[in-house]
Amino acid sequence: MKISLIHGPNLNMLGKREPSIYGSFTLDEINKKIAYRASLLNIELDVFQSNSEGDIISKIQSLPERGADGLILNAGAYTHTSIAIRDAILAVSMPFVEVHLSNIYKREGFRKQSYFSDIAIGVVSGLGVLGYECALEALAEHLRVQGRV
Asked: b vs e for 71-93, b when ≥16 Cβ sit within 10 Å of the residue's Cβ?
């Protein structure tokens, strides 16, 4: 099973950026933690981060040819603005889980709107780093039940 994890803009600043909201883990620490969990589940994990919407779209478009079975996406602020990323996800027709470190429903009004939630198999919001682990477990189980792997 191969799952891709895509981190959006400003997530490279984790550990420095508003730790009271996003926690003290760095992106590298989060990636190592998720990679370890993936190895325990016998999942090959491909991790990508970009601050560029176009790079994220290109990465999503490349997932089928790269053999990805599913996607975990923390699109950061693009969650609330990017129809283009939504269209890329729909184009590849790949199951995915939307992840947010913070609880977007306890934040500013504009953060409560997601362009992805209605097409995701699930959304994890507000559980910090644990949210990525939950997303990995849920996506792996979904892929197994659906017979995609």
From this structure: bbbbbbebbbebeebbebbeeee
Closest to 5 measured CA to CA, from 43, 33, 45 = 45
Contact 106, 126 (CB under 8 A): yes
Tell whether pTM > 0.85.
Answer: yes
Q: What is the mean pLDDT of the chain?
A: 92
CA geometry: angle 10, 60, 25, nearest 5 deg: 30
Q: For residue 132, indicate whether it is catalytic.
A: no
Residue 94 main-chain phi, psi, to 5 deg = -115, 135
Strand, helix or coil at 123? strand
Residue 78 is a catalytic residue: no
* DSSP three-state, residue 142: helix
- Alpha-helical runs (H) found in 3-129: 19-22, 27-40, 53-62, 83-92
Identify the DSSP state of 107: S
Active-site residue, from 7, 22, 78, 115: 22
Which one is catalytic: 7, 78, 100, 132? Answer: 100
| Residue 78 tokens, joined | 């693009």
Q: What is the pLDDT of residue 111?
A: 65
